[in-house]
Target: DNA-(apurinic or apyrimidinic site) endonuclease
Amino acid sequence: MGLLASLKNLSGNQLKQRSLLSHRSVCYCCCWIPLLSSILGSTHAFHNPIQPNRIAPSTTSPLRPFHSSTSRLFLESRRQELEELRVVDLKDRLKERGLKVGGRKAELIDRLLSEPETAAMPRRSPRKAPTDDETKGPEEVVAEEVVVEELVVEEKPKKRARKTKAKTEEDSASAKKTTKQPEQRITEVDVIPKLWSEEKAKENGSYTFKMASWNVAGIRAFVKKQPDALQKLVKDHDIDLLCLQETKLQESHVDDPKMNFRGLLEEQGYKDYWSCSTVKKGYSGTAVFIKERGGKKKAKQPSIGSFFSAKSEDAQEKVGDESSSSLPVSSETLMPTSVTYDLGKSVDNEGRTIIMEYPWATVTNVYVPNSGQTLQRLDYRTKEWDRFFLEFQKKKQQDRKKPVIWLGDLNIAHKAYDVWNDGAKHHVKQAGVTPQERESFTQQLDDGFIDAFRKLHPEAKGHYSYWSQRSGARPVNKGLRLDYFICSPELFEEGSEVVVRDSYMLYDYLGSDHGPVVLELEIKSK
Model:
């Protein structure tokens, strides 16, 4: 009876403490309760101190210690899960919750863990309120709930990481890579005949003077990518005058011995002149290389590096390989009497022009301003530059009583044949093909000047000098003709001392988004 009295006098707090026993202890107690009841008699029912709801709804529930430890384990598991995510995925989650996304990865994880989530805690099994006729003791109820709780935690599937927007974009990009893209249609190039040959010139006792123009889009990068391209061009085509645009050099770079731009083609027998932008560094810029024909000239001392480069090949043979007596015309005819840059500082302080006065014509190497991606310089180009430059050429022609030629990157695709997709809707806002630029260029030609290539090949299609590198346009020939030779009309007259004979593009020379263009003139012997 003393043992029964002790059991009857157990307080509620003592029962709660017993609920924290291990499963083995709880089951041990549950086994002794029926035995004691049978000894004391069936008339002595086991007293339940908790009325009639077996688990008191207090804040000191016997399950709270279990939940605290489980919560810590879950937070550790969730932290490990978050640490496996990328920073961009963590930021996406923070954005969805309206939280700050700045800081290191550890700070982002702490911020996510401190924010409560609806599914952050483990699921608890629903508990039904016990009925009055239930005979289970509080220890049995607690033991059952603990077991159920454990089963719920063990059976809970691992939370899957939500697929973020960034991940979706990556998957989409990956799918695009694996998807075979349709081949682009190649813009066809009409075959044009060769209109002139040096053999024919020799038969006539005249000399073929060749000019080449090339926008190199930054000569430092150009030389690194194609170190021998200029040397190969002047050698293979026996160029008399090579004009470059968009060199992007400062004046200090030209004479810097480490860069070696001064005398770049000296081994091949060329004298060079440079015009650099003074208003903006590393911008615009032009250069010319003039072949010094006739007489002997000492070759430049080759550097150690030149012995491993093709540029010194046959250099001694190329320099001064023609005497004045071997030329059908005098060597003075093939050299300019002056080289200037005087277009006017108020108009050109960007190194856009070099003017050469030959005995038979005034030749200007020019890099015409681009109107810009947003056409921010459209008015300047069409209303100021084009008009001033036209008047400058007309005045030169009038003052010297000689024809003029201006050549280079004129930043205009004039006619339908000069652009691969003429008539496209976006052309009205694309620099080089806007109606304003085309109209301005038409006015220049209508004032008494001729586009040499289009004069000689009026119906030729697919002959371009520029291809965008961003869209991979060159292999499929989606280009524009932006590089020109503009000449006075008398240079096309058979009775003239100098006559334009041919003009064409060279497609085998790489290193720039432009290709070289060539003009051939016949200089007749007197």
